[in-house]
Amino acid sequence: MSGQKILITGAAGFIGSHLCDRFIKEGFQVIAMDNLLTGNLQNIQHLFKLKEFEFYHHDVSRFVHVPGSLDYILHFASPASPIDYLKMPIQTLKVGSLGTHNLLGLAKEKKARILIASTSEVYGDPLEHPQTENYWGNVNPIGPRGVYDEAKRFQEAITMAYHRYHGLETRMVRIFNTYGPRMRVDDGRVLPAFFKQAIRGEELSIFGDGSQTRSFCYVEDLVEGIYRLLLSDYVYPVNLGNPQEITIREFAEEILKLVNNPVARIGYHPLPVDDPKQRRPDISLAKRVLNWEPRVNRQEGLNLTYQYFKHILSES
Ligand code: NAD
What we know:
The chain contains 9 helices and 13 strands. It has 316 residues and is of the alpha/beta class. The mean pLDDT is 95.
């Protein structure tokens, strides 16, 4: 792969920055693009000194120009956590629609292969468990979360249209909950919230009785799956995530044990109306077409993430 050129949008974000690391490691020339809406340059600061790395501060919802040739595009720019997309509904809709259209146009012009980051949220409040790629979802287009879910559904639709109509080489990943270093402490998701509360000796907030389940994929595993998908021949959406489920109560206990702060404890609060009972990917397709499954166990992944949060929170 040495010398091949890849554009990564959302490069200063959590997943985008890990993708930059991986593609640099594989010998690619990486062009990183981000408007820093929710990202942080610190995530990619270590790459600025490399001649194989370039950064463009740009909003991809506006026309995107990149000089020279391009072999691949990874479109990961988008507000991604509920706190972010509820605060920035219009930007979220624009980056999923106009941004994706701009990048598909760029891919067509450069004859590049493009992979877009979709999400398990395209399944909405699913009526099938676990979710396979054949499930079409249960989404409320006009609810507050519709701005994210429908932007991503439109993104998939326009990507398929470019594939069918223009013969563009397209790939789509439906990402389930992913965690690891460089997640934002205040992104509103349960994992950073628990770490922050445990490290600060506060109450770990469980909503409801904690019997709801979640499954968490370590970022390195996700990146491996994305790498394989990009280089595969498979054009339809592929779920990537960790199917191992854990209840929120067990998860809080695991974090308490890991952080070992004697004053931290669990506190129970009323369950919000839209809290999903269960989230779990069916990854049979990824196993079959990519020969992929998660390798990093939760204990190992949480330990690495804990080191990161400990460091970040000691600085703030
Ligand atoms: P993140 O917020 O850390 O990263 C998103 C990046 O996109 C940020 O750096 C932000 O500044 C940038 N961005 C947003 N709008 C932009 C625009 N118009 N132009 C240029 N840059 C823009 O989020 P993340 O968790 O790394 O998510 C990355 C992608 O993966 C998103 O598309 C998200 O929908 C998808 N995804 C993530 C998860 C997860 O568990 N983290 C799950 C499903 C899907």
